[in-house]
Specification:
237 residues; alpha/beta; Rossmann fold; 2 domains; four-stranded antiparallel beta sheet; 9 helices; binds adenosine-5'-diphosphate; binds magnesium ion
Length: 237
Protein backbone atom coordinates (compact mmCIF):
# COMPACT_ATOMS: atom_id res chain seq x y z
CA UNK A 1 0.00 0.00 0.00
CA UNK A 2 1.34 3.48 -0.81
CA UNK A 3 1.88 5.90 2.08
CA UNK A 4 -1.09 8.18 2.76
CA UNK A 5 0.89 11.24 1.65
CA UNK A 6 3.70 10.89 -0.84
CA UNK A 7 5.76 13.79 -2.15
CA UNK A 8 8.01 12.93 -5.10
CA UNK A 9 10.93 15.00 -6.34
CA UNK A 10 9.35 18.41 -5.77
CA UNK A 11 11.13 21.44 -7.17
CA UNK A 12 9.99 25.02 -6.49
CA UNK A 13 11.93 28.06 -7.70
CA UNK A 14 11.48 31.72 -6.76
CA UNK A 15 13.09 33.74 -9.50
CA UNK A 16 16.23 31.79 -10.27
CA UNK A 17 16.63 30.38 -6.77
CA UNK A 18 15.45 26.91 -5.85
CA UNK A 19 13.59 26.90 -2.54
CA UNK A 20 12.94 23.17 -3.01
CA UNK A 21 15.26 21.02 -5.06
CA UNK A 22 14.03 17.47 -5.63
CA UNK A 23 12.34 16.92 -2.28
CA UNK A 24 10.70 13.56 -1.61
CA UNK A 25 8.86 12.68 1.59
CA UNK A 26 6.33 10.13 2.77
CA UNK A 27 3.90 10.48 5.67
CA UNK A 28 2.10 7.40 6.89
CA UNK A 29 -1.25 7.17 8.62
CA UNK A 30 -0.83 6.67 12.35
CA UNK A 31 2.60 8.27 12.47
CA UNK A 32 4.06 11.64 13.36
CA UNK A 33 6.56 12.67 10.69
CA UNK A 34 8.90 15.51 11.63
CA UNK A 35 10.30 18.05 9.19
CA UNK A 36 13.14 20.12 10.57
CA UNK A 37 15.78 22.44 9.17
CA UNK A 38 17.12 25.97 9.54
CA UNK A 39 15.10 29.04 8.63
CA UNK A 40 14.82 29.33 4.86
CA UNK A 41 15.31 25.57 4.32
CA UNK A 42 11.98 25.34 2.48
CA UNK A 43 9.70 23.76 5.10
CA UNK A 44 6.79 26.18 4.72
CA UNK A 45 7.18 26.14 0.94
CA UNK A 46 6.83 22.36 1.06
CA UNK A 47 3.60 22.73 3.05
CA UNK A 48 2.36 25.28 0.50
CA UNK A 49 3.05 22.76 -2.25
CA UNK A 50 1.37 19.88 -0.42
CA UNK A 51 -1.69 21.92 0.54
CA UNK A 52 -2.10 23.27 -3.00
CA UNK A 53 -1.25 26.94 -2.43
CA UNK A 54 1.78 26.65 -4.68
CA UNK A 55 2.32 24.60 -7.84
CA UNK A 56 5.69 22.92 -8.00
CA UNK A 57 7.88 23.38 -11.10
CA UNK A 58 8.39 19.63 -11.24
CA UNK A 59 7.41 16.70 -9.06
CA UNK A 60 4.24 15.08 -7.76
CA UNK A 61 2.06 15.11 -4.67
CA UNK A 62 0.07 11.94 -4.06
CA UNK A 63 -2.64 11.23 -1.53
CA UNK A 64 -3.56 7.54 -1.15
CA UNK A 65 -1.63 6.93 -4.35
CA UNK A 66 -3.75 9.44 -6.28
CA UNK A 67 -1.91 12.24 -8.06
CA UNK A 68 -3.33 15.53 -6.67
CA UNK A 69 -0.55 17.82 -7.96
CA UNK A 70 -2.95 19.76 -10.18
CA UNK A 71 -5.78 20.05 -7.69
CA UNK A 72 -6.51 23.30 -5.82
CA UNK A 73 -6.39 23.75 -2.05
CA UNK A 74 -10.16 23.42 -1.47
CA UNK A 75 -10.29 20.10 -3.28
CA UNK A 76 -7.31 18.79 -1.34
CA UNK A 77 -8.92 19.90 1.92
CA UNK A 78 -12.03 17.92 0.99
CA UNK A 79 -9.82 14.90 0.43
CA UNK A 80 -8.58 15.20 3.99
CA UNK A 81 -5.52 17.48 3.89
CA UNK A 82 -5.47 20.23 6.53
CA UNK A 83 -2.72 22.59 7.56
CA UNK A 84 -1.84 25.34 9.99
CA UNK A 85 0.17 28.44 9.17
CA UNK A 86 3.43 29.55 10.75
CA UNK A 87 2.10 33.11 10.65
CA UNK A 88 -1.25 32.67 12.36
CA UNK A 89 -4.22 33.10 10.05
CA UNK A 90 -6.91 33.69 12.65
CA UNK A 91 -9.85 36.06 12.46
CA UNK A 92 -8.68 38.30 15.33
CA UNK A 93 -12.03 39.88 16.17
CA UNK A 94 -13.95 36.63 16.11
CA UNK A 95 -14.18 34.42 19.17
CA UNK A 96 -12.22 31.22 19.51
CA UNK A 97 -15.40 29.22 18.86
CA UNK A 98 -16.31 31.23 15.75
CA UNK A 99 -12.81 30.80 14.34
CA UNK A 100 -13.29 27.04 14.53
CA UNK A 101 -16.91 27.17 13.42
CA UNK A 102 -16.06 29.05 10.21
CA UNK A 103 -13.46 26.40 9.38
CA UNK A 104 -15.84 23.57 10.28
CA UNK A 105 -18.57 24.99 8.05
CA UNK A 106 -16.17 24.94 5.10
CA UNK A 107 -15.09 21.37 5.79
CA UNK A 108 -16.45 17.90 5.15
CA UNK A 109 -18.25 17.88 8.54
CA UNK A 110 -20.22 21.07 7.75
CA UNK A 111 -23.54 19.42 8.57
CA UNK A 112 -22.43 18.90 12.16
CA UNK A 113 -20.18 21.95 12.36
CA UNK A 114 -21.33 23.10 15.81
CA UNK A 115 -20.95 19.66 17.37
CA UNK A 116 -17.56 19.10 15.77
CA UNK A 117 -16.43 22.54 16.96
CA UNK A 118 -17.46 21.85 20.56
CA UNK A 119 -15.71 18.48 20.53
CA UNK A 120 -12.46 20.02 19.26
CA UNK A 121 -12.67 22.92 21.75
CA UNK A 122 -13.01 20.36 24.51
CA UNK A 123 -10.15 18.23 23.23
CA UNK A 124 -7.83 21.26 23.07
CA UNK A 125 -8.85 22.50 26.51
CA UNK A 126 -10.30 25.67 24.94
CA UNK A 127 -13.89 25.40 26.18
CA UNK A 128 -13.25 27.97 28.91
CA UNK A 129 -11.82 30.49 26.43
CA UNK A 130 -14.32 29.76 23.64
CA UNK A 131 -15.96 33.18 23.77
CA UNK A 132 -12.72 35.23 23.90
CA UNK A 133 -11.69 37.13 20.77
CA UNK A 134 -8.51 35.53 19.40
CA UNK A 135 -6.55 38.81 19.11
CA UNK A 136 -6.53 39.00 22.93
CA UNK A 137 -4.99 35.55 23.41
CA UNK A 138 -1.42 34.70 24.41
CA UNK A 139 0.49 33.16 21.48
CA UNK A 140 0.55 29.66 22.99
CA UNK A 141 -3.26 29.58 23.10
CA UNK A 142 -3.64 31.24 19.68
CA UNK A 143 -1.48 28.43 18.25
CA UNK A 144 -3.97 25.93 19.65
CA UNK A 145 -6.84 27.80 17.99
CA UNK A 146 -4.95 27.55 14.70
CA UNK A 147 -4.59 23.79 15.26
CA UNK A 148 -8.30 23.63 16.14
CA UNK A 149 -9.19 25.23 12.82
CA UNK A 150 -7.40 22.39 11.09
CA UNK A 151 -8.84 19.68 13.38
CA UNK A 152 -12.49 20.60 12.81
CA UNK A 153 -11.93 19.48 9.23
CA UNK A 154 -11.25 15.99 10.65
CA UNK A 155 -8.15 15.64 8.49
CA UNK A 156 -6.48 12.40 7.46
CA UNK A 157 -3.26 14.34 6.89
CA UNK A 158 -2.49 17.21 9.27
CA UNK A 159 0.35 19.59 8.38
CA UNK A 160 1.50 21.67 11.36
CA UNK A 161 3.84 24.62 10.72
CA UNK A 162 5.66 25.51 13.96
CA UNK A 163 2.57 24.89 16.13
CA UNK A 164 4.45 25.00 19.44
CA UNK A 165 6.21 28.34 18.86
CA UNK A 166 5.15 30.53 21.77
CA UNK A 167 3.87 27.66 23.90
CA UNK A 168 5.29 27.31 27.40
CA UNK A 169 6.67 24.02 28.75
CA UNK A 170 3.35 22.81 30.14
CA UNK A 171 1.46 23.70 26.96
CA UNK A 172 4.09 21.89 24.90
CA UNK A 173 3.73 18.78 27.06
CA UNK A 174 -0.04 18.73 26.50
CA UNK A 175 0.54 19.36 22.83
CA UNK A 176 2.89 16.39 22.55
CA UNK A 177 0.19 14.15 24.04
CA UNK A 178 -2.34 15.56 21.56
CA UNK A 179 -0.08 14.74 18.61
CA UNK A 180 0.41 11.18 19.82
CA UNK A 181 -3.33 10.71 20.29
CA UNK A 182 -4.06 12.05 16.80
CA UNK A 183 -1.56 9.58 15.36
CA UNK A 184 -3.09 6.78 17.45
CA UNK A 185 -6.42 7.54 15.76
CA UNK A 186 -4.81 7.03 12.36
CA UNK A 187 -4.02 10.61 11.35
CA UNK A 188 -0.82 11.22 9.39
CA UNK A 189 0.72 14.14 11.28
CA UNK A 190 3.51 16.16 9.66
CA UNK A 191 5.25 18.42 12.16
CA UNK A 192 7.48 21.38 11.29
CA UNK A 193 8.99 22.53 14.56
CA UNK A 194 12.12 24.11 16.03
CA UNK A 195 11.58 22.71 19.52
CA UNK A 196 13.93 19.73 19.22
CA UNK A 197 12.87 18.07 22.44
CA UNK A 198 9.28 18.06 21.18
CA UNK A 199 10.32 16.74 17.75
CA UNK A 200 12.49 14.00 19.21
CA UNK A 201 9.81 13.01 21.73
CA UNK A 202 6.81 12.70 19.40
CA UNK A 203 8.11 11.87 15.93
CA UNK A 204 8.34 8.36 14.52
CA UNK A 205 10.50 9.61 11.69
CA UNK A 206 12.28 12.90 11.00
CA UNK A 207 13.26 14.51 7.70
CA UNK A 208 15.95 17.16 7.70
CA UNK A 209 15.77 19.85 5.07
CA UNK A 210 18.65 22.18 4.29
CA UNK A 211 18.74 24.67 1.41
CA UNK A 212 15.80 22.94 -0.29
CA UNK A 213 17.16 19.41 -0.09
CA UNK A 214 16.50 16.47 2.21
CA UNK A 215 19.90 15.91 3.83
CA UNK A 216 18.83 13.19 6.26
CA UNK A 217 15.82 11.07 7.18
CA UNK A 218 15.33 8.47 9.88
CA UNK A 219 14.13 7.78 13.40
CA UNK A 220 14.84 10.56 15.95
CA UNK A 221 17.59 8.56 17.70
CA UNK A 222 19.48 8.31 14.41
CA UNK A 223 18.89 11.93 13.36
CA UNK A 224 20.22 13.25 16.67
CA UNK A 225 23.58 11.62 15.93
CA UNK A 226 23.80 12.35 12.21
CA UNK A 227 26.90 14.43 11.39
CA UNK A 228 25.26 16.15 8.42
CA UNK A 229 22.33 17.18 10.59
CA UNK A 230 24.52 18.47 13.37
CA UNK A 231 26.42 20.55 10.86
CA UNK A 232 23.33 21.82 9.03
CA UNK A 233 21.10 22.47 11.95
CA UNK A 234 21.54 21.24 15.46
CA UNK A 235 25.04 22.69 15.73
CA UNK A 236 23.67 26.05 14.76
CA UNK A 237 21.33 26.39 17.74
P1 LIG B 1 11.32 27.69 6.04
O1 LIG B 1 9.85 27.53 6.26
O2 LIG B 1 12.06 26.40 6.09
O3 LIG B 1 11.92 28.70 6.98
P2 LIG B 1 10.53 28.85 3.53
O4 LIG B 1 9.81 27.76 2.83
O5 LIG B 1 9.69 29.91 4.16
O6 LIG B 1 11.57 28.23 4.58
O7 LIG B 1 11.51 29.57 2.50
C1 LIG B 1 12.40 28.84 1.68
C2 LIG B 1 13.14 29.81 0.78
O8 LIG B 1 12.24 30.33 -0.19
C3 LIG B 1 13.73 31.00 1.50
O9 LIG B 1 14.97 31.34 0.89
C4 LIG B 1 12.69 32.09 1.27
O10 LIG B 1 13.29 33.35 1.29
C5 LIG B 1 12.18 31.72 -0.11
N1 LIG B 1 10.78 32.14 -0.30
C6 LIG B 1 9.71 31.65 0.38
N2 LIG B 1 8.57 32.19 -0.06
C7 LIG B 1 8.93 33.03 -1.05
C8 LIG B 1 8.18 33.90 -1.93
N3 LIG B 1 6.84 33.98 -1.87
N4 LIG B 1 8.89 34.62 -2.84
C9 LIG B 1 10.23 34.51 -2.92
N5 LIG B 1 10.98 33.72 -2.14
C10 LIG B 1 10.35 33.00 -1.22
MG1 LIG C 1 8.60 28.33 7.68
Amino acid sequence: MPPLLQVDEITVAFGGRRALDGVSLAAEAGRVTGLIGPNGAGKSTLFDTVSGLRRPGTGRVRLDGRDITREGPARRARRGLSRTFQHLELFGRLSVRDNLLVAAELGPCHRRAARTTDAVLDRLGLTGTAEAPTDALPTGIARLVEVGRALVQEPRVLLLDEPAAGQDAEETEHFAALLRSLAAEGTAVVLVEHDMSLVMAVCDEVYVLDLGRVVACGPPSQIQQDETVLAAYLGET
